[in-house]
From TrEMBL, chain A:
Entries under Gene3D superfamilies matching the protein: MetI-like (1.10.3720.10)
Membrane topology: Multi-pass membrane protein
Domain ABC transmembrane type-1: 95-298
Record-given protein name: Oligopeptide transport system permease protein
Organism placement in taxonomy: Bacteria, Pseudomonadati, Pseudomonadota, Alphaproteobacteria, Rhodobacterales
Gene Ontology CC annotations of this record: plasma membrane
The species this protein was found in: Roseivivax sediminis
UniProtKB/TrEMBL annotation, chain B:
GO biological process, one term: peptide transport
Species in which this protein is naturally found: Roseivivax sediminis
All residue ranges annotated as the Solute-binding protein family domain in the record: 78-459
Name of this protein: Oligopeptide transport system substrate-binding protein
PANTHER family tied to this protein: PERIPLASMIC BINDING COMPONENT OF ABC TRANSPORTER, PERIPLASMIC OLIGOPEPTIDE-BINDING PROTEIN-RELATED
TM region positions: none
Entries under Gene3D superfamilies matching the protein: Dipeptide-binding Protein, Domain 1 (3.90.76.10), Dipeptide-binding Protein, Domain 3 (3.10.105.10), Periplasmic binding protein-like II (3.40.190.10)
Keywords recorded for this protein, A-Z: Signal, Transport
Amino acid sequence: MLSYTFKRLAIAVPTLLILIVVSFVLMHAAPGGPFTSERELPPEVLANLNAKYGLDQPLWRQIFTYIWGIVTEFDFGPSFIYKDRTVNEIIAQGFPVTLTYGILSFIVAVVVGVTLGVVAAIRQNSVLDYFAVGVSIGAQVLPNFVMAPILVLTFTLWLGWLPGGGWQGGQWEYLVMPVIALSTSFMASIARITRSSMLETLNMNHIRTARAKGLPERRVILRHALKPAMLPVISYLGPAFVGMITGSVVVDVYFSTGGIGKAFVDSALNRDYAVMMGVTILMGTLTILFNLVVDILYGWIDPKIRY
Amino acid sequence: MLKHSLAASAVALLAASPALADNPVPEGVELAEEQSYTFWLLDAIKSMDPQINTDVEGSDILRNLFEGLYNEDAQGALVPGVATDHTVSDDQKTYTFTLREDAQWSNGDPVTAGDFVYAWQRLADPATASEYAWYMELMQIENAAEIIAGDVEPSELGVRAVDDHTLEVTITTPLPYFPQMVVHASTFPVHQATIEEHGDNWTRPENMVGNGAYVLDEHILGERVEMSKSGTYWDAENVVMENLTALTINDVNQALTRYLAGELDRVDIPAGQFPRLKEEYPDQATSTPYSCSYIYMMNVGDKGPEALNDVNVRKALAYAIDRDIIVDRILQGGQEPSYNWTHWATAGFERPDLDWADWSQEERLEKAKELMAEAGYSPDDPLELSLQYNTSEDHKKIAIAASQMLKAIGVNITLSNYEWKVHTDRMQSQDFDLARYAWCGDYNEASTYLDLFTSYSGHNNGEFFNDEYDAVMAESKTAEDPLPMYQEAERILAAEMPIIPIYHYANVDMLSPEIGGIPTENVMQTWYGKDLYRMAE
């Protein structure tokens, strides 16, 4: 297991390097640059800007300097657009915000999703099942960019219970709507996957054996069925977790949280090369890391898998 | 030496606004206990450094944290800022500003002429790499162009501190509207010692030293900006509003919802919602002229389609657009249909009489069909053109309407939607037929618009080159009264039609009835927190 982990981590390095190079080249291939604006800059001004940000260098050297800066000083460079901030600072401000609402959403999605899925499966074709399936399908088809404005209209404008947006250091009343908006569709997917996987598991031989032994149903479900039923859910949770903690543009836009999701999309639209690279590397690293975590969890849950 | 006090200047009437030297609150108004104003920002503030900022929203913040030589009053006329008045030399090329002695930085240092010299040199200095360095060129300041190009040291810029309270500026050609250019945020002074100590971090709340009526308390990128009244501002005793808060909300509809929930005092109204809101909230929904002009630029250069080299085709395209439909049915926010380029409410500007502006739309359409026929096109043999616009629901709606209107005269339009940077890049490399374009005035004078279509302008993406136009604009620079030249320039545009004017902007706002002092007659929409007050409910 340990050698497997090391092997995986060793592969992560070239993977990240490829990610950096490909993103860098693609980014520079897009028309326009960070200083393209409605007011076309005089050539001298543009030359001064390009010189300051190193954009006058050949692309291979820009990539090399960039990677060198990260490796030696963990320096992702200055933002080309938010000029009094560095990429490190932008991520340091936005990522904790995203991480907070992302982790909370993840917990809500898993707890509610798994519960709904399990309940639906063990009471298959009952009212409870229809209710759980209905809720999860409803949640799935209601995209969060529709749900977010509805939440604000309801809780802020009509009921006046919650502030319509902002962050304020992550006080609970600022968290409620972002968490609902972000967790709902994940929750729905988790519920559906759990339900079908649970139904499958309940038909397996070892469950029949457990029941034949006369074990109470509660114990059969929790001790024998839940663990194997979780396998497909866990493979879904790895990428879902990364998706949630790296932020959602919709949540950031509609609830003005100042999170990293909006910063990422903005950086692409603004051609803020440095921020775009910084967030890409962050997301890439997290994706690799959590895929590894999922694989290790697999080995722990499923005795058939050995590394 | 010609003595110019502000009051005597043709562009600014200090005498007309004596109230500004005093408390901004009219008599009989009862003030609310808590003096706070919360306003809306569409995007995160890109920089709080006056010489680095490029955005309108950034300028709204900077005007409160810093103060330039002059400010604008509610009508857009100049009023004293750090400078109390100025004189102009006989050749109109040397401006000498007298600075007040009681102006202070937020750390207690006096604001001196040297601070302006430092800031202006910094703006032009290639090492600063400011995107607004060209503003020094636009102001015609001596050696600005050479400094930006790196040929001359920044210290050679034509700006000099005669003594601590006298600033002398040398410009290369007379500019009648020069004093109006010094209200621009990029000309605000900055505190040299602070910048040298903290480098790029000097704009952080804990480091920033400003000279405005407010100090920066907090700036969370993409979430909020908090400012509170500065005790060191020279006119602090007349500043009523204690706290200013700016909230970033990236979605205009969401901002409106939060305004209606009472979280904001002022937001923009999304397109098409003004009539409904005006009916529901007549005391809050406002529409005021805003100095920006919306056009379709035509590519008349070498890389443009051949058909657009024919002036008749260009005129036909312009005539065929029914602007009333665009303004009354799509935008619905009090925008003005436009038949010329310069925003109608620009100070000192009057629209010239243009024939086609007075025709009825039926007449214009008739004429357009004739012109197309003359040019050899008909519905059976249509002209094929593309119209590109940047991503926005409003631009899309207008483009769809325009393409339908043009179909009526035998023009088949292919609509192309591009993301903003791609749109801009294509325009600047002349890779377009027709393209959506808008320009907002840098200062309140017609040349900010009309200079754009000179052959030497960096923004003339459609490559409309016309010697007569250049000559008229050159002449306007030294004229006592440039209006006739500006009108002539507009006539040339109407005769050559390198653009399709669509509409002149309006700022369509919801404004809390409790807030007083917001200027509504200033076409630049410039506002200062120090002029605001909150009334008791």
